[in-house]
TrEMBL record:
Keyword terms of this UniProt record: Cytoplasm, DNA damage, DNA recombination, DNA repair, DNA-binding
Gene that specifies this protein: ruvA
Similarity comment: family membership: Belongs to the RuvA family.
Assembly mode: Homotetramer. Forms an RuvA(8)-RuvB(12)-Holliday junction (HJ) complex. HJ DNA is sandwiched between 2 RuvA tetramers; dsDNA enters through RuvA and exits via RuvB. An RuvB hexamer assembles on each DNA strand where it exits the tetramer. Each RuvB hexamer is contacted by two RuvA subunits (via domain III) on 2 adjacent RuvB subunits; this complex drives branch migration. In the full resolvosome a probable DNA-RuvA(4)-RuvB(12)-RuvC(2) complex forms which resolves the HJ.
Chain spans, region Domain III: 147-202
Localisation: Cytoplasm
Chief location of this protein within or outside the cell: cytoplasm
Protein's recorded name: Holliday junction branch migration complex subunit RuvA
Function text: The RuvA-RuvB-RuvC complex processes Holliday junction (HJ) DNA during genetic recombination and DNA repair, while the RuvA-RuvB complex plays an important role in the rescue of blocked DNA replication forks via replication fork reversal (RFR). RuvA specifically binds to HJ cruciform DNA, conferring on it an open structure. The RuvB hexamer acts as an ATP-dependent pump, pulling dsDNA into and through the RuvAB complex. HJ branch migration allows RuvC to scan DNA until it finds its consensus sequence, where it cleaves and resolves the cruciform DNA.
Residue ranges of coiled coil: none
Domain notes: Has three domains with a flexible linker between the domains II and III and assumes an 'L' shape. Domain III is highly mobile and contacts RuvB.
Domain called Helix-hairpin-helix DNA-binding motif class: residue spans: 72-91, 107-126
Species this chain originates from: Nocardioides jiangsuensis
Amino acid sequence: MIAFVRGTVAGLTLSSAVLEVGGVGLELNCTPGTLAQLRTGAEATLPTSMIVREESLTLFGFIDEDEKSVFEMLLTASGVGPKLAQAMLAVHSPDELRRAVTTEDVKALTTVPGIGQKGAQRIILELKDRIGAPVGSASARTAPAAAAEPWRDQVHAGLVGLGWSAKEAEKAVEAVAPEAGSAPSPDVAALLRAALRTLSKA
């Protein structure tokens, strides 16, 4: 298994990053919050989880070990595959997921695209005694974007990557714009989660 990847960020897409390691480009599927912290040409080290299928080997990359451990825990729940686990981490931070599961907050879990009330209840039932309490992890989700306006493109790209239409993404970006304010370095991951909550209410 590949525990982590360290290399130069060779490219970024809506849902993945390509890291060049020893002349080989490895594609890692990442959440929008993780992708927002990466810059093309910069060095990066990402913990990884490899999902093996008959027809493919897929690497998922994470901003830190905490995000990786929660991802792998989510995969142990019935009906939760890699894409859904990744969507859960796109909407909620690891601690927010721990809190939602341990406090049986069905409403919080159903803000994730693809999770209904029954699915949320099943996840809570299966993980409540295993996922652990919030640990107060201060992951790099709070790292700023490079400038004030790029956050719009990053949030928009993240929403489209999670399956929302470009038009829906644009509306959500505008809805959360007041939260960004005039700060030179808004929290992209927090704005993305706010945008997803806006869409889930629509």
